[in-house]
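Q: I'm writing up a methods section and want to include an example of the input and output format. Could you take the sequence below and give the corresponding predicted structure tokens, formatted cleanly so I can copy it straight into the document?
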Amino acid sequence: MVGISVLFFLILWAKSFSIKLFCAICGAVTLTWVTLLILYWKGIFSDIMIIAILMGESSLAIYYLFDTKAKEEWKFFRLPFLLSLVTLFYFLITLSKVMQSLFFLTGLWVIFLIIYAFRYKSVVVESFMSSVMECCKRW
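A: Here is the clean output for your methods example:
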């Protein structure tokens, strides 16, 4: 927690001199888990749980960034995008064990792309796509 707090203030200070590409909290969290992950790979740090929690925060931040910046029609791909992020971050921790996830994700992306391609050709497909898009609207 101390490391994240120090990085937060350093990044916040540095942002006053440069381009503001990301928020200071996201930068601090990301730099912390990247550092801890490298230390984990080198056998210096062993608490994988905190790395996983911080990676989860980053993956959700990327998802929310996508959700706020993406064109409305691309938001249909929220589920495969989020699961792709989870798989990527899981792979970074384990450095293996992702083949089943990759097969599943590939199938999920194909299904969503097919639905997207036929979105105006069928009332059922258009209705399904609308329900997916409306699912995550903020109240």
